[in-house]
Every structure is written in structure tokens, then in C-alpha cells.
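Inputs:
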Amino acid sequence: MTLLWLSAGSILLILCSIVLYVVYRGSHDLGVEFVLGQPENIWLAGGMLPALIGTLYTVLIALLFATPLGIGAAVHLTQYTKEGRTTKLMRIGSDALNAIPSIVFGLFGLTLFLYYLRMKPSVFAAGLTLGFMILPTIIRTAEVAIKAVPWSEIEGSYALGATKLQTITGVILPTALPGIITGVILGLGRAAGETAPIIWLASFWPPITPLSPADPFNSLTTTLYFLTSEAQNEQYITRAFAVASLLLFMVLVLNYVARALNNRLSANIRR
Amino acid sequence: MGRFEPEKMVGRVLMLFSITAVVVLLLIMLFIFNAGLPLFTKVGVLDFLFGTRWVPSKDVYGAFQFIVAAFMVTFGALLIAVPLGLSCAIFLSEIAPRWAKNIVRPAIELLAGIPSIIYGVFALVIIVNAAHITFNLATGETILAASIILSIMVLPIIISISQDAIEAVPRLYREGSYAMGATDWQTIHRVLLPAASQGIVAGVILGMGRAIGETMAVVLVIGNVEKFPTGFLVPGETLTSAILLEMGEAVVNSLHYRALFCLGIVPFVFVLVLSVLSSRLISRNHERFE
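Outputs:
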């Protein structure tokens, strides 16, 4: 029994040591200037603003693509089909898509956008690649949230003479909203932290502030990768840890918001 | 009548939405097979799978050392993560008081949310140096270092899926066991674990898929030496890290380019099979107790 307690303790220890170490090493550089300033000397001095904008921009496009698609799919799977072969196949397909290695998504994005569609590496290409990747997460969480809507509310809506479409938009989606948002936030966190899918679509230097989706861009994760893999001295690593802390901070906040929403959702359903 | 009927339209449009995931999956398959498979008109399949020399400049593409390294890091990771993850799952589902659950569960979710590149940077500085000092090696960038960081990364999957499986075992089983005078440990060991075994195996399988496909954390710590890995304390290069490092310099549609896509096909197919397998195990585990 002590062993079981120890195993749980070791998980906490691992998490704390990773978070604390990254923040400790990164704290030297962190500050307003680091987040909102322009970079100098291949990101070794100045701020990370272009990379931050690039990351947020790609993630925004990924969400704009994957959120309606994922919610629509979840509504279809739960409201328009009976459990059977088709839904099973779709679920297996979505689970499989979720498990595909991120570097394979990178290869996919590379061939689809650069080779077949003859586009330049851009925010749009990277955003869609990430969108494909987080689609299963959004479908799955939206499905769970919709299934948790109490039967009585749905039947009540039909009993009042509402059509299927009215029931979905007026009752099911509003009730399931917190759960759906939780899924979207989880997808957001995942998309913001991925490196391999966009490694051939993001550029490293010079810094670019993308305006249109067709512009090239920098991203926090790929910049972090280049700083670490090309490291020539301690300065690169210190810098890498500062970028890592910024990313970690974003992920921590998103995680916290997602959980807070989720708790409120379960409180609602108990009521 | 050509009347606009939104009700019917919506059903059809949503139908399109829900097949997107399957369509994307098929497109990925089509694209990477289409880019990779023409390699085998010039290079034999067996030479590719079991050859141990990889020299792009001479168009020699043997991927065996990458495949072996990928499986070594994966099994090394599971060797650490399975016992630790399983005992943590048992802890959470059987003996943890409420307050402990409220701390450990969010911690696991957070662990799952940390980007893989951050694990890589952390491992490069901490685990690589630790391996370097502990084993007195020339370099700490080894298969072992990759295994250790991967084990941390697959823990959340193994814990959450096996915890679900253990919690799905009906209370009747537990009470029956205690009624016969079994201790806590005997109940866990003889009743719960066997009853939840399918779900636990599914968790391990998913963890395995995650480990074999992981790129960023591995590439930073494994040393990337294209030699056949002779043990856990030597550097190596996995399938995914080879793709990441070489794709930038490969000319589109050259043999090198195609060979790199074939390196991607290996974990792709592997993960696909594992994923279907684990879906079936999970649904069977649930059906059993309904």
C-alpha cells in the first residue's frame, strides 16, 4: 500500500521538478520586454513577439477550422444517427486520427500544401495542419458534452413542438456549451504546443509579423527547437528555457480554465 | 416542390462534417504512401526494412537501425511507465482519499498537456547530464535518456485508461472478494487486475503508440548517430528523428525524399493497428460489465 502512495507521490514530484526547473532557468529572461519586444541576433536578445503572434495566429486558424467541424460532427453522431456500424467506423477513424504521430501530420501538411496545392509555407497551411490534428479532440469532447444533456430537456423541447434543428440550437448546444468549450481549449493547448507538424512550414529567421494568412511566420515551438538543437553556448539554452516558460505558462493557464469550466459543467448537470 | 428545407439540409451537411475525420485519415494514408512507396521500384522492401546502412549520398537506404532504435526507446519507456502508471491507477481508483485524488488527477492532466518540446529541453539538460555522470559515459545522449523522458510522457495515457478500466469493475466483485476474507492486496491482485486486464492492456497499447511516434523529445536527447544500437547506453536515431533531421535537405521526389516518407509509413501503420486494437479492447471491457 505504501508503494501505491509512493507511486502517486512520484508523479507529483516529476511534474513539480519539470515545471519548477523550466521556470527557474527561464526566469532570468522573462519580462514584459521578452513577451512584447522585437527579437535581435537570431532570437538571442530582445523579445519573442513575432513568434508569439505567429503561434496565436496559427492556433486561431486551427480553431476556426476545427471547432465548427468538430461540433457539427458531434451533433451528427449523437442526434442524426443510430449507434451502429457507421458511428462505430467514424469513432474508430477519429480515434486513429488522434493517435497518428505528429511528425506524420507534418509530412501530410508538407505534401498537401506545398506539393499538391503549391502554396508557400504560411500561417494558413500551418493552421489547417494543426486543425486536422486537433479535430478528434474536439469531436470527442463535444460528443461527451452533448450526451450529458439530460433526456428530459430534449424531450421537453420536442413536446413543445420544436423541430429537431430548434432543439439542437435552442436546447442541446447551449446546455452542452461548457463541455464543448473545454474541448476547444484542450485542442487550443495542444495546437499551441506542437512542433513537428509545423516544422517545415514555419521559418526561423528573420522575424516576421504575419498580417494575412498567406504570410510566412515564426512560431514559439519551432524557435524553441532551433535554439536548442543549434545551441552553441549556454546563452542559447537559457534563451530556450525562457521560451519554454512562456509556453508552459500558456498551457498552465489554458489547463486551469478548461478544468474550471468542466467543474461548472458537472455542477450544472447534478443540479 | 423546390422549397428550401433547412431541416433536411442540416442533416446532410452535418453528415459531411462527421466523415471529415475519416476522410483526413484516408488522405494522410494516400499522400504518404503515394510519396513513399515508389522507393521500392529502386530499393528492395527487405533491403529497406532489414538493411543497416543508410547513406543518402549513395542512394543506400537500410532503415533497420532506426526501426530497432524506435522499438528500444518504446520498450524502455514502457518498462518504466507500466509499473509506475499501473500502481498510480490502482491508487487513484481504490485507495486514494478524496483530497489526494484532487491533487493527483489535475497533476496527471497537466503532465499530459505539457508540450513535447518542453520535455525535450528539460531532458536534454537534466536527464542527459544525469546519464552522463551516473554511467560515466562519453555522452549522456543515449537510448536510455530517450526512454526515460518518453516514460514520463506516456504515463498520463496509461494511468487514465487503466484507471477507467479498474473503476468499471462492478462493486460486486470487490465485495465478493472481501466477503471471502481477502485482503486489500489480494483483492487488487487476484480480482480487480484480472477483471480489468483488457482495459489495462488497451492503455499500454496506446502508450506504446504515443512513444513510437514521438519526435521532438526524442530527437533532442538520443544523440542521432546512424549506427546500430547495441544497448541502452549508446546513442541512436529513431524513425521519427531521422525524418525530422533529413527532410529539410531532401530534394522533392528524389529517392531520399521517398525513403524518408517510407520511414514515416512504418510508425503510421504501426500506430493505426495499435489504435484499432485498443478501441476494440476498451469497448469489450465496457461491454463485459454491462
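Remarks. Residues 45-288 of chain B form a domain with the MetI-like fold fold (CATH 1.10.3720.10). The longest strand of chain B covers residues 54-55.
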